[in-house]
Amino acid sequence: MELRLEPVLAAKVEQWAAETGRPAGELVEDAIAGYFTEAGELRNLLDRRYDEIASGKVQLVDGAEACRLLKERAAARQQPIASPIFT
Asked: Is the pLDDT of residue 67 over 80?
């Protein structure tokens, strides 16, 4: 198989190969393999989440409610914690 890379990307691969001492083809193969591994894991996660939503196991929160909850949590973290005074 032959891959054609844009010149900027090809230069980055060559630089990376020079810095690591590994062949450029090996670096590209590792990157592609990693991409497919991560894409497969993400696909499985999304499928599981969809199944949880479809089954009613997880309930959705609308965007405005999600923002409100996040702001509440952030505000709670910013409140100073009272510390006991030791005498």
From this structure: yes
In angstroms, the CA 25 to CA 31 distance is 10
Query: pTM here?
Result: 0.61
CA distance 21 to 27: 10
Give the ranges where 2-23 is alpha helix by DSSP (H): 7-20
Report the C-alpha gap between 35 and 41 in whole angstroms: 10
Token pair of 5 as six digits:
């890379």
Residue 72 has pLDDT above 80, yes or no: yes
Dump the DSSP string for 36-77.
HHHHHHHHHHHHHHHHHHHHTSS----HHHHHHHHHHHHHHH
